[in-house]
Structures are given as structure tokens and as C-alpha cells.
Design brief:
216 residues, mainly alpha
Length: 216
């Protein structure tokens, strides 16, 4: 019998994972191809992104939105300062992944800033899709040379996904194999820019192809 013990956790990972699957199926499918440890970090990141992007849907006044963004900014800083995380389940997940070194507080704060800017300007094109993708990629490979391509493709994917553009966007070289679980869903831009609403099977097939080939 193994003497290995698993660390105790108060984070409801299963519930957070189900939430990300429900609200952001594209990224959730891609994350299934990441190693289990890094997959948790991706899910924590995507859960935070959901909390930030939905501010525009949850409030009708600018001041209330700014209060929410500040709440997350302070929550992340408290974690960085070694204070106990706030009771929100995403805070618990972020605290675990920051402690493990897989998520960086500075990168998360920049994410908050990006979503706040998009909120204030009422312009979803300003949402930090590229930074979200780059932060996810850095979980898998801290140093790589694909940042420029990633951010260009991310912008095209985001615009096509929200039906703001029918442009496929840049053709880029195949992504490094280790990065693919963080970006394979960008391949869905082909379907979105054609005006299609892919079902779960079609999404999985397309993302699997991106995982195998690196073509996004």
C-alpha cells in the first residue's frame, strides 16, 4: 500500500469544473487534454474569467460594476499577501493555484483590469481574450515563443464566437504540443465565422484535431 497522501482541500473543484463546462464549454473541452494538475489551474483561471465577464450582465450601473471588479482585485491581493482567501469558491481555487505557483497574482490582476476596461467602454472587443489565452498557456509552458500568434488568433476567435466578425483571422504555424490544451478551442473560429453553432460532438471533434495537429 502506498504511503502517499493527497493534500486536503476545501475547494469544491467538482462544482467549479461543472460551472466552467456549463458557461465556457469551448475552453473546458480543451482543458481536458491538460495534465490533471495543470487542468485545475486552467479551470480556476476560466472560473475567474467567467466571474469577471459576467459583471456586464449582472449590474446596470457603472459604480456597481466597479465595486465588483475592486472586490476581485482585493481578493487576489489578499491571497498574494498570504491572507486566508475569501469564502467565494473561486477565491479558494485561486489560492491553491497561486500557492502552487501555477497562477501568478500579477497576471490575474491584469485580467481584472482588462475586463474592467471593456466594461467601462461597453466594448466586448476590449475584453482581454489574448491575455487570458497567454495566461493559460503560461500554466503549461512558462516560456515560449508563441505569444504573438496566440494573441492574434485569440482576438479572431473571440470576435467570431460572439458573432461580431465573420473573418477567420490569421493563419499561424502549428502550436507547440504542450500549449495545445490551453488554445485548441481557437480552432472553433472556423465554425463560428461561418455562422455555425457547433454542437458538443462537433466541438470535441474540432478541438481534438487541434490537439493532434496544433492547427488552430
Amino acid at each position: 500500500m502506498s504511503n502517499e497522501t493527497r493534500p486536503l482541500t476545501q475547494t469544491p473543484w467538482e462544482e467549479i469544473d461543472k460551472r466552467v463546462r456549463r458557461v465556457d464549454e469551448d475552453r473546458w473541452i480543451s482543458s481536458r487534454f491538460a495534465p490533471a494538475t495543470e487542468r485545475r489551474a486552467l479551470i480556476a483561471l476560466y472560473a475567474l474569467a467567467y466571474e469577471l465577464v459576467r459583471v456586464r450582465e449582472a449590474v446596470s450601473e457603472e459604480t456597481l460594476g466597479l465595486i465588483r471588479f475592486q472586490w476581485w482585485r482585493e481578493a487576489i491581493q489578499e491571497i498574494a499577501d498570504g491572507k486566508p482567501p475569501r469564502g467565494h469558491d473561486v477565491c479558494l481555487a485561486l489560492a491553491e493555484e497561486i500557492a502552487a505557483g501555477r497562477l501568478k497574482p500579477g497576471a490575474l490582476q491584469k485580467l481584472v483590469d482588462g475586463y474592467q476596461t471593456a466594461f467601462l467602454e461597453n466594448d466586448r472587443a476590449r475584453e482581454p481574450e489574448g491575455w487570458l489565452g497567454l495566461t493559460a498557456a503560461n500554466i503549461l509552458i512558462p516560456a515560449h515563443n508563441w505569444a504573438g500568434d496566440l494573441q492574434a488568433v485569440a482576438a479572431a476567435y473571440a470576435a467570431a464566437r460572439r458573432h461580431a466578425s465573420k473573418a477567420f483571422g490569421p493563419i499561424v504555424s502549428p502550436a507547440p504540443k504542450q500549449l495545445r490544451p490551453a488554445i485548441a478551442h481557437y480552432r472553433l473560429r472556423k465554425l463560428y465565422c461561418e455562422g455555425k453553432k457547433p454542437n458538443p460532438f462537433t466541438k470535441r471533434f474540432s478541438i481534438m484535431k487541434a490537439i493532434n495537429t496544433g492547427e488552430v
